[in-house]
Amino acid sequence: MAETQGKFDFAIDRGGTFTDVFARLPDGSERVLKLLSRDPQNYKDAPTEGIRRVLEEETGRMFPREQPVDTSLIGWIRMGTTVATNALLEREGERTALMVTQGFKDLLHIGTQARPKLFDLEVAVPDVLYEEVIEVAERVVLVQDGCQLPRKDPKRIVTGSTGDSLEVWRELDLDLVEKDLKGVLSRGITSLAVLLLHSYTWSDHEKAVGALALRLGFSQVSLSSQVMPMVRAVPRGYTVCADAYLTPKIHQYLKGFTSGFKGGLKDVDVLFMQSDGGLTPMDQFCGSRAVLSGPAGGVVGYAITSYNQMEKKPVIGFDMGGTSTDVSRYAGQYEHVFEATTAGVTLQAPQLDINTVAAGGGSRLFFRSGMFVVGPESAGAHPGPACYRKGGPLTVTDANLALGRLLPSFFPKIFGPGENEALSSEETMKHFHRLSKEINLFLSSKQSQVSTNGANGSGSEMSVEEVAMGFIRVANEAMCRPIRALTQAKGHDTSQHVLACFGGAGGQHACAIARALGMKTVFIHKYSGVLSAYGLALADVVEEEQEPCSLQYEQQAFRDLNRRVEQLSERCRETLCARGFSSSQISLEVFLHLRYKGTDCALMVTADAHPANAQSCAAGDFRSAFTKRYLKEFGFTIPDRPIMVDDIRVRGCGKSGIKSVYKTKTGRGHAKPVTMTKCYFEEGYLDTGVYLWEELPSGHSIKGPAIIIDKNSTILVEPCCEARLTAGGDVCMTVGSDPHCALGTELNTVQLSIFSHRFMSIAEQMGRVLQRTSISTNIKERLDFSCAVFGPDGGLVSNAPHIPVHLGAMQETVQFQIRSLGNTLKEGDVILSNHPCAGGSHLPDLTVITPVFRKGVSSPVFFVASRGHHADIGGITPGSMPPHSTSLQQEGAVFISFKLVTGGVFQEEAVTEALMAPAQYPESSGTRNLHDNLSDLRAQVAANRRGSQLVGELIDSYGLAVVQAYMGYIQSNAELAVRDMLRDFARRRRQETGSLDVEAEDFMDDGTAIRLRVQINETEGSAVFDFTGTGTEVWGNCNAPRAITLSALIYCLRCMVGQDIPLNQGCLAPIKVVIPPGSILQPSQNAAVVGGNVLTSQRVVDVIFRAFEVCAASQGCMNNISFGSESVGYYETVAGGAGAGPGWRGRSGVHSHMTNTRITDPEILEKRYPVILEHFSLRPGSGGAGKYCGGDGVVRKLLFRNQVVLSVLTERRSTRPYGLQGGEDGSSGLNLLHRADGRVLNLGGKTSVSLQPGDMFCLYTPGGGGYGREGDTNGKPQTKRRRLNDSFLERGSVFEYRMAQEGV
Description:
Blueprint: E1 8-14, E2 18-24, E3 30-36, H1 46-59, E4 74-81, H2 83-90, E5 96-101, H3 107-110, E6 132-136, E7 139-142, E8 156-159, E9 165-170, H4 174-186, E10 191-195, H5 204-216, E11 220-223, H6 224-227, H7 233-258, E12 269-273, E13 279-281, H8 293-306, E14 315-320, E15 325-330, E16 336-337, E17 340-342, E18 345-347, E19 351-352, E20 355-357, E21 363-368, E22 371-378, H9 396-402, H10 425-452, H11 464-488, E23 498-502, H12 510-516, E24 521-524, H13 531-538, E25 541-552, H14 558-578, E26 586-596, E27 603-606, H15 622-634, E28 643-654, E29 675-681, E30 684-692, E31 701-703, E32 706-709, E33 714-717, E34 721-725, E35 731-735, H16 749-773, H17 777-780, E36 785-790, E37 796-800, H18 809-821, E38 830-833, E39 845-852, E40 862-869, E41 898-902, E42 905-906, H19 908-916, H20 930-958, H21 960-993, E43 997-1003, E44 1009-1017, E45 1022-1026, H22 1042-1057, E46 1071-1074, H23 1090-1108, E47 1120-1124, E48 1129-1133, H24 1162-1168, E49 1171-1179, E50 1193-1200, E51 1204-1209, E52 1230-1234, E53 1240-1242, E54 1246-1251, E55 1256-1260, H25 1293-1302
Parallel strand pairs: 1-4, 4-12, 5-6, 5-10, 10-11, 14-23, 23-24, 30-32, 45-46
Antiparallel strand pairs: 1-2, 2-3, 7-9, 8-9, 12-13, 14-15, 15-20, 16-19, 17-18, 21-22, 24-35, 25-28, 26-27, 26-28, 29-30, 31-34, 32-33, 34-35, 36-37, 36-40, 38-39, 38-41, 39-40, 41-42, 43-44, 44-45, 47-48, 47-51, 49-50, 50-55, 51-54, 52-53, 52-55
């Protein structure tokens, strides 16, 4: 691509609020400009206006607004835009229809079946993007070796692009399709998304439908096989829908944009930024690749300007805007993800791993139950922060203003209703005085309680500045957590990074965040306020080609692999040459999507640093590259396991980025402040010099405290930090250590919030180590584990992630060990336990407990523990989840207080013996997967070691007394929130009925009652939960250990509190739980319990919510389905209907309450297991009727190709999920078996049955109960459906990981 000398070049980032323009002038000089993205009184389109202004001001010629801009002086234009993101957030895309394989019309509605927010009873899931669904009578299935399905007639065999063979079971009837498509067109829908199963490898049917649709007049046709040919129908389906929904909107915007120029920009090179950080020509810019177009420019900007090729020091990008903060990482290569969720839509496309977190300048400040809370709610652009003079709330920006870190005199007067006033310190201080008064009132009431109890406390009130400073520190800690997660997830040390800060608000927080993370350097580019625009000027044009693959990475496959890589490379090369690039400007990078056979953990690997050799394919030594990266990320490799190639990807780059020639002036002497101001820090108010960035000479240093200001940003240089201007005009800050101020044991509410984050961070980091170092699918990929920190009394302090069935249970386990082992615990000991009598939930959940010792203290000062679900620990069935067990011994190996590590030595022999012990019982086996058990137990020990180390570091920083004191305060904080909720409920209950007692009962399918009576003490905010009258222990496995009831209770309390609180032992402090021994909820020591964990737990939740009249019952079942043979085993839980509540309908096809497991994608299921998914859709009418209807269950039909044993463990097959307040009950579920010979059998709720090839299992899951009588208008008004952009939306790999953890 030729240089455009003598012309104006423009790089423009059109954001939600502002549009940033970077212009390179004909003489090589540069200028930047910022303008409002929407200002309809003055101009139609912000990017056009920015170009017009620069041309007019620089040439002195008139370029009238009402006339198209003359393009003769324009060399190129590059743009990043939030048009696609905004259309997705606002749901304002094109009207779209989805065409899908018959039997799967609700596939994208059900999605993964997991709910997005674990504790929200109203399951608010963003709407699907299509308006109508057409089911196509067509079907292809993969050919499987050893398939024993009886063949009635020969089927056509075809070969897919992966090399897999497929059978065409049902040919496409284009006449029928044409009729359906004409019907859609007649209703005004002209955009079509097509998703047919297995089209990622064989796309003929999709192509035929696409050609027909274009012929009939559809203006946009998106085929999933073209948009993203990757296996997994659900994310591919979301991606193709987004493409069909957004691409017409992008074309509409482009049409409007080009119309503002003479000749419609025909002779100008116009490029748009894609989500992957590469530029693409305007006519190739499409919806599915456009969602991160805006932030991607910023990543390219900091990557190219901050990363030093010589030092190779990795960089963390920190882009703090108004609503949220974007965090990313660069270490010489862009970090891409290939599946990420934006605005509730999972897109399967290469995108930069940009993690968006809920703390920006506009994040709101709250004081809740004694805790400082920042976000996730945002003040938005309107009304904005309080200081904007539009009646907005207190925000992070206001806190910075209150501390003197923002100076109104340096801001333009664009605030207030007339947009002509300065920032208002008065408004900010008025709000802060009010909030400080509320905080001090709370503190004085706590103080009087403390004095009554005879304890010490801090009597001093908090000043307005201390309150504002507190919120800044809490906001900083909230932003540090995802940065730690992003780096440590992949085995990197956070402190060894440079912090590259950009965006309007980041400079005020950079020093504090770098210091908290142990980083020594902060880099802020001279264009940090417009870095996304500058990044567009530096970016390259990118062309990507990708195709799926099913080859094993081995010598005999290399010929085929080399041929396919060369084909894709040639296509990239041809496209870039056609765009004007010479061969010398083109570079190609080959990626293989690799995984160990039998695992799901695929890595997109480049062989950049691993040249080809005799044992590798021509593109490089991918085996070495893969094993090195796998070892780095996960801490081990699997040397004897074959490596599979899932996808081949080639990324071609046309070098076209500019080189910046800007040099700042060099000066002698010291830089002089333009003024002095008073700025508040930990030490109080300090004299702070204010400097103008543009007047600073390079090479000089400014010691903190200081403020550096330019047109678009404010940088705070904190005390003990030093800023230096580089030759390029950028600011480089050296971060000194914090002069540590001693913290006492008395309550400091700011530190309370920070300690809460720190304790959670310890549990999260333990989880990352466990996931990285484990080997089994259950822990590594399904993330079925949780990690926790406990006090010296075994009381829960913090727990991550929040798997409902683990919530209170681990605390019981730790406290049992303290009672049982007492003073015999020594440093270097680690305990293993899973027995229900010792706080276990069911036997496959193995809990590993490590006591944390401190020099000079004889007993443990803390405990850390990790609980992981092991795929098999022996028993009468593979998977250790037998549907028909009647005693604990049939369910697998048992551990009560087993010393897994003694004196630092892992007891491999003893634990192996214990895991094999179940073989001594009739029809029972020892563990069927000893290797994975031992590997995962070692991983749990390693996770605990990391937790113990982090607790030690926290104690080193603050002292044992302080850390233990704050542990107690955090538990008290949770207790306070629960007490407030109970008082509030008691007050309403007394006004309505005069009674403070509530009760409820419900039944298991066998008639066993679960009874509950709750007596509430309004004065204390306490309650007795009494389960007296509950049925006796049962013959079977629906007995639930006491720990399960406590987990269900904590889950219900958190849902009813309705806000984010620490989930620890404090939640249960106001509660006394009475459970009759010998009942189904506290069975005898050898009772079978596997069903109690997955079924009875749901009924306990139903009974608690019925007593408090919170909402109607959800499906009340997890629908546990497993099948297996000698060579294969599979387990899933299946969604149903959620209960309706006051003001909301129940969600259909979703998991509820005590489970949130994701379901296996249809294409993966059929690729790996001897089964064909015939049907998966909603079950219409199964939700209970009412003013607000209950959600519908689902219908799932599995056709078996080989002999297997099927096990079902289900409930609500004879009882129905209750309706509330006159709403009707939901339908009960049904398990049917259709034999190949035509017989249909009702299997009942719990059974194991041998199946033959051709047998089909049909699962009908229960619906949710309805709420309120139909036609009743006296109830509460229906809540308005929240628009997506009213609530903050996280994204990125850290968020995906947490969602996956909560989806267990």
